[in-house]
């Protein structure tokens, strides 16, 4: 989900971060980087939000409705703020739909508290729910679920607060920060749909385990430990933040990749590979040398200077389906976002694409389970595999000349047994931006290099191509 100021169906924060923020130091680490597990909030049995009473199709429908529900809420929110010149200038609607799809574990403090946070390539702040340190109260949630785990700063030997006169605090410009009576840097991180988190900007030690799940300090489990990491110690949230916090993987100075790059030798790069929702295998998130995308057919495109720091933005120059090509009057920009389920395209591009796809698919149209995804087909007679061979590939021409191919699994999704629906949606005029959602990213190894300012894409089978690394016999 994108953070920081407007555009599309993304949670968008109002904070702009500038300058070099990280005062981190790493006292242990891996030369080749490390990997963590990405847990889908609906589909994975490891998720505390997994509902076993739902079918796989029901879980996918719930994820789609999160995207479509946010789109409608944001359209109304932008209409309310139109002409104010500020995302805070109007009354925004707070939605109660959980806004993110993927979770990961973060170990914070010494001794560490293990917290399950949302992972988001569209924002740049890592924050967790805090309380009981003698100066902050337990988090208050308006419209959101109570936290599973609350970080208690008083129990950590390495917790610190950022002074409101420091350069780090000054990076939170505008209405985002203030000083409390003890000169601590208080922040508010607001999102375009009305959700927000607020608290005290702080520093802590983060510990990352190089293996899926498990515990800190387990034998044979290498770790990366980073001290003095800047994060938000959140004491109040509103909106649907059902996890313990959020880690921003975007392009801002406070993002995880940027702070790790400043503190360690692994560089400012990460990659991820999302398995399809129906595959019972974890997705993977890599940092450092492991983030290199070297598979055959990999294509690289420049990261564009974003409208705001958090966005991972690239150029979309053309779309080709069969022998037909579609272009926009001007060079289009699209945000690569792991937190949005659907792909959102402007009407000028979406309409001819839909026309060509529907012309090519010779199956019976059926009523959709969701009114916002109206183009659905009855595949009960052919099966999902055969349907994948019927749907033409969609080739995206990116800046720099590279072409990425979207297969049927990237453009269609099964919303109920025997019913496949097109997973493309119109980007609202109020937003003005396009989003490459996570369904369209499935079975791709996607690498983001913030040092080289590039994004690289390779078509792979994420379930088999990126098995978890086997930890060495001794911890680092």
From TrEMBL:
Keywords: Aspartyl protease, Glycoprotein, Hydrolase, Protease, Signal. Residues 1-26 form the signal peptide. The active site is at 120, 337. GO terms for biological process: proteolysis. PROSITE patterns: PEPTIDASE_A1 (PS51767). InterPro entries: Aspartic_peptidase_A1 (IPR001461), Pepsin-like_plant (IPR034161), PEPTIDASE_A1 (IPR033121), Peptidase_aspartic_dom_sf (IPR021109), Plant_Aspart_Prot_A1 (IPR051708), TAXi_C (IPR032799), TAXi_N (IPR032861). GO terms for cellular component: extracellular region. Residues 102-458 form the Peptidase A1 domain. This is Peptidase A1 domain-containing protein. The gene is LOC123074185.
């Amino acid at each position: 989900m994108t953070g920081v100021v407007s555009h599309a169906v993304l949670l968008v924060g109002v904070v702009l971060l500038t300058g070099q923020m990280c005062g981190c130091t790493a006292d242990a680490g891996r030369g080749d980087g490390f990997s963590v597990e990405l847990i889908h909030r609906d589909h994975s049995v490891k998720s505390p939000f997994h509902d076993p009473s739902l079918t796989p199709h029901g879980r996918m429908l719930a994820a789609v409705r999160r995207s479509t529900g946010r789109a409608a809420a944001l359209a109304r929110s932008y209409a309310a703020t139109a002409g104010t010149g500020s995302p805070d200038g109007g009354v925004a609607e707070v939605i109660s739909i959980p806004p993110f799809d993927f979770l990961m574990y973060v170990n914070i403090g010494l001794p560490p508290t293990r917290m399950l946070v949302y992972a988001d390539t569209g924002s740049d702040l890592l924050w967790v729910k805090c309380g009981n340190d003698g100066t902050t109260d337990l988090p208050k949630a308006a419209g959101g679920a109570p936290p599973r785990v609350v970080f208690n700063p008083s129990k950590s030997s390495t917790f610190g607060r950022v002074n409101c006169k420091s350069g780090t605090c000054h990076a939170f410009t505008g209405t985002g920060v203030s000083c409390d009576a003890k000169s601590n840097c208080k922040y508010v991180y607001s999102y375009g749909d009305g959700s927000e988190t607020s608290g005290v900007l702080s520093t802590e030690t983060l510990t990352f385990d190089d293996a899926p799940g498990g515990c800190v300090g387990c034998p044979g489990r290498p770790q990366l430990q980073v001290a003095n990491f800047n994060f938000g110690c959140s004491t109040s949230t509103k909106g649907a933040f059902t996890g313990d916090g959020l880690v921003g993987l975007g392009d801002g100075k406070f993002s995880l990749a940027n702070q790790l790059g400043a503190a360690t030798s692994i560089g400012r790069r990460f990659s991820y590979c999302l398995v399809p929702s129906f595959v019972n295998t974890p997705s993977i998130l890599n940092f450092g040398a492991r983030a290199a995308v070297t598979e055959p057919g990999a294509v690289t495109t420049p990261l564009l200077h974003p409208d705001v720091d958090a966005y991972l933005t690239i150029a979309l120059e053309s779309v080709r389906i069969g022998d037909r090509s579609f272009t926009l009057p001007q060079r289009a920009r699209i945000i690569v976002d792991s937190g949005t389920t659907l792909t959102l395209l402007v009407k000028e591009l979406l309409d001819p694409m839909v026309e060509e796809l529907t012309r090519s698919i010779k199956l019976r149209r059926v009523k959709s389970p969701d009114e916002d995804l109206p183009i659905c087909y009855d595949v009960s007679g052919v099966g999902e595999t055969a349907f994948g061979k019927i749907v033409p590939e969609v080739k995206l021409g990116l800046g720099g000349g590279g072409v990425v191919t979207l297969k049927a699994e990237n453009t269609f999704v099964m919303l109920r047994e025997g019913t496949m629906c097109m997973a493309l949606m119109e980007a609202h005029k109020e937003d003005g931006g396009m989003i490459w959602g996570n369904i369209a990213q499935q079975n791709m190894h996607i690498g983001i290099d913030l040092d080289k300012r590039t994004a690289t894409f390779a078509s792979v089978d994420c379930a088999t191509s990126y098995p978890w690394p086997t930890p060495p016999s001794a911890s680092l």
